[in-house]
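Reading a protein record of the kind used here takes only a little practice. The record below shows the convention in full.

——
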Amino acid sequence: MRKILIVDDEEKIRELIRMNLELAGYECEEAEDGEQAVIKLKEFNPDLALLDIMLPKKNGYEIAEDFINADVPVIFLTAKDSVMDKVKGLKLGAEDYIVKPFESMELLARIEVVLRRRGKESDEFEYKNVKINFSTREVFVNGAPVEMTAQEFALLEVLIKNKNLALSREKLLESAWGYDYYGDTRTVDMHIQRLRKKLNWEDVIVTVFKYGYRLEIN
């Protein structure tokens, strides 16, 4: 299980981020100021750190070097949205810079990209009798290969990367088909039914009433 340190002086923001990350399968620790973050860096040994910039005692810019020197990738999460702030953060060696407010889905995607780029994220996913390799785009059920269209695999990947999060049909359409797709949300329903049947995941891909779907991983 990958470990993420959440550093922010606002408790409600930390709690919200932690809830979404833990639902997605990450182990999390929190720090409310820069000095505490440096201590947690040594004690928790995270795989990635989410740093706010405007922190008590030591700000995010000041402590970023400690994390980067320890080979822990950093993503800045901050309300500071000027170009100069972004440039400063990236020049310090941060992997990414996300401006508040942001969507949980976007944060999860950015974390995944960074961990994969740093070789800290697995290219495989396994649950119950299903095994998926994202690099080779292969799917196996009970060890036997299952044929997937490109669009079915794209939808499956979005569901897995956002496991335990409720995703609207519109969001699934946007993420798996793209902004320039002109179909309607019934396309999502049809592909969900195909995935359920091929993977025998009727009880895993759950319908969220009048909203969309959730990949429910216990």
